[in-house]
Amino acid sequence: MTQLPRPRLLVITGKGGVGKSTVSAALALALARTGQRTLLCEVNSGGGATALLGYPRAGPELSRLDGELWSVDVRPAEAMREYVLSKIRFQRVYRTVFENPLVRAFLRFIPSLAETVMLGKVCWHLRETDGPRKRWDAVVLDAPATGHALTFLGVPQVLLDTLPPGTMAEEASWMRDMLVDPKVTGALVVALPEELPVLESMELAAGLRARHLALLAVVLNQATAPRFLPEEVKALAALPRLQALARGHAEEAERTQDAASRLGTLGAPVLELPRLYQGTMDQAAVAGLGATLLAGLEGRT
Ligand SMILES: Nc1ncnc2c1ncn2[C@@H]1O[C@H](COP(=O)(O)OP(=O)(O)OP(=O)(O)O)[C@@H](O)[C@H]1O
Ligand SMILES: [Mg+2]
């Protein structure tokens, strides 16, 4: 089957708690299972997305989880160190300058420095090569929540607007070019079938558009498929507890449909992921969500 070309950097964002890490882990696992060399990339979040798959939490070093699936939690201090070492190449100079407590304290106060070096590392992974080919077929970024994500992804443009031409501006320029190129980067906004998350997703999508990032899809997580017709709910009058359950389910399905039609106005496919009713998520549950998501992204549903 021919697949649509897909950007290599998939940025997963959305309101806090809507399922960004679950979606990131699910998508990364599904891509890796189709043989694509995939990096699940977290941003100073403590490695929780990786843990959702049943592996130890990701750390600042790349680690191979299974087959083609790798993960990393990009942390500011380590990203800074790698960046500086890649430029000056002398461990001793790095130690003398950057491990000096005064310099460290100073660096912490430069606005957006942490975001810049972390985003720089993500973009650097996209450019990594393995012989003649790119090292990663897919980098799945478990990005921060709405406001923070917009700041994070907007950092290169802010730097370009404020810095004089020079090395830093050049760094910002290639990062910005990668983010705004729809062949390289696509965003997936995760939403829930509830009023506030839907509103916030619409604002987030507008914010991404303002930063010239391509919206690849909206993921409507915890969706409920319709199961009961209104007359079926009515017919359960003699069994009030069952009727209440069926009515609750029908209302959730209605909220899902309402959210899907509002999110549909954003001009990107709305991919529904079912709400799972199980105590804790395990790899099998996350894998199921990932397969659904990938099929939706590839237009197979
Ligand atoms: N489809 C689903 N069905 C049932 N529960 C889900 C589903 N998706 C996510 N959850 C649950 O919702 C909770 C939040 O998910 P997750 O941690 O992925 O959200 P998040 O957006 O990454 O949160 P944060 O903003 O804190 O990083 C978790 O308990 C997760 O197990
Ligand atoms: Mg998370």
Structural features, described:
The chain is elongated, with a radius of gyration of 21 Å. The protein has 301 residues and is of the alpha/beta class. Helix content is 51%, strand content 17%. The chain has an 8-stranded mixed sheet, with helices on both faces. Strands 5-6 form a two-stranded antiparallel sheet. Helix 3 (76-88) crosses helix 6 (113-127), helix 6 (113-127) packs across helix 8 (167-180) and helix 7 packs across helix 8 (167-180). The protein is built from 12 helices and 10 strands. It has a domain at 9-76 and 112-223 and 277-297: 3-Layer(aba) Sandwich (Rossmann fold), CATH 3.40.50.
Q: Measured on Cα atoms, how large is the radius of gyration?
A: 21 Å
Query: Low-confidence segments, ≥5 residues, pLDDT <50?
Result: none
CATH C-level category of the domain at 9-76 and 112-223 and 277-297: Alpha Beta
**What is the helix content?**
40-55%
**How many DSSP-defined strands?**
10
Specify the overall morphology.
elongated
| Spatial strand order of the main sheet | 3-4-2-7-1-8-9-10
- Series of secondary-structure elements, N-terminal to C-terminal: EHEHEEHHHHEEEHHEHEHHEH
Bound molecules: adenosine-5'-triphosphate, magnesium ion
For the record, the CATH architecture of the domain at 9-76 and 112-223 and 277-297 stands as 3-Layer(aba) Sandwich
Percent strand: 15-25%
**Average pLDDT rating:** 90
Helix count equals 12
How can the largest sheet be summarized? 8 strands, mixed
Query: Could you state the CATH homologous superfamily of the domain at 9-76 and 112-223 and 277-297?
Result: P-loop containing nucleotide triphosphate hydrolases
**How many angstroms separate the termini?**
14 Å
Helix-and-strand structural type:
alpha/beta
Fill in the CATH topology of the domain at 9-76 and 112-223 and 277-297: Rossmann fold
